[in-house]
Amino acid sequence: MIKVYNSQQEASEAMAEEFKNIANQSIKERGRFNVSLTGGSSPKVLYKLLAEKPLVDQIPWDKTFVFWGDERCVPFDHEDNNAKMAFDLLLDKVPLPKDNTFRMDGRSNPSEGAQEYERILKQHFKNEDPAFDLILLGMGGDGHTASIFPGTEVINEKDKWVDTGYNAELKSDRITLTAPFINKARNIFFGAFGEGKAETLKSVIEGDYRPSEYPSQLINTEQGNLVWYLDEPAAKQIKH
Ligand SMILES: O=C1O[C@H](COP(=O)(O)O)[C@@H](O)[C@H](O)[C@H]1O
């Protein structure tokens, strides 16, 4: 489903409302809310909104478990660290127990970091279907999502839940959830804002299936809801 709003602010308000609904529904049905966060620019307004009243008081943070969809292999206090951004804008401002957060760490060895994160996920989901209640994703201007970049090996991964990624432009190692694991989620929100995303969005949503060029095309939930939250400038080249 594609939802288009006048601005990133309006789209983020709608995402925040749905985030709250999914959190409460998940806790009602399964006792906890498992969410995977994204980095980049697209979730920043959403994170701020979730930390503000009234929403902050409407989410049962003590039953919320926070993971990440991808991470850059940089120290936690580095300005490019995805988890740091989420802590700064959201997680440090809400009553979320610190033990309920699970950061990726690939600083010393990305491959070992990916294996370790898969072990953490398997332990967390050992008594239930390994499906996130909600995964937040962004889409880069090159069509990547999480840290699944064009032309990289992780695009073809079928079995692992977590793998290494590589950003050739920045020459930086990454850790990322794989597309098959992301696709198990009950809900996936893709946020993309600004005119700079318009052309790539058209290729991803309406173009031929070429996932090695546009890895975001790999994302397609098996059993859940996939919603694109866009602003008008990002959506200007697609039918909606
Ligand atoms: O490198 C990354 O980029 C994507 C997209 O970011 P955006 O700034 O274009 O929204 C992001 O989803 C991912 O978490 C991040 O590591």
Automatic annotation (TrEMBL):
CDD domains: 6PGL
Keywords assigned: Hydrolase
Key word Hydrolase present: yes
GO molecular function, one term: 6-phosphogluconolactonase activity
Short name of one Pfam family: Glucosamine_iso
Enzyme Commission numbers on file: 3.1.1.31
Start and end residues of each Glucosamine/galactosamine-6-phosphate isomerase domain: 7-228
SUPFAM superfamilies for the chain: NagB/RpiA/CoA transferase-like (SSF100950)
Origin superkingdom: Bacteria
Record field: catalytic activity: 6-phospho-D-glucono-1,5-lactone + H2O = 6-phospho-D-gluconate + H(+)
Top-rank EC class of the record's enzyme: hydrolase
Pathway: Carbohydrate degradation; pentose phosphate pathway; D-ribulose 5-phosphate from D-glucose 6-phosphate (oxidative stage): step 2/3
Keyword Isomerase: no
Any GO BP annotation: carbohydrate metabolic process
Chain's role: Hydrolysis of 6-phosphogluconolactone to 6-phosphogluconate.
Annotated family: Belongs to the glucosamine/galactosamine-6-phosphate isomerase family. 6-phosphogluconolactonase subfamily.
Name of this protein: 6-phosphogluconolactonase
Organism name: Fulvivirga sediminis
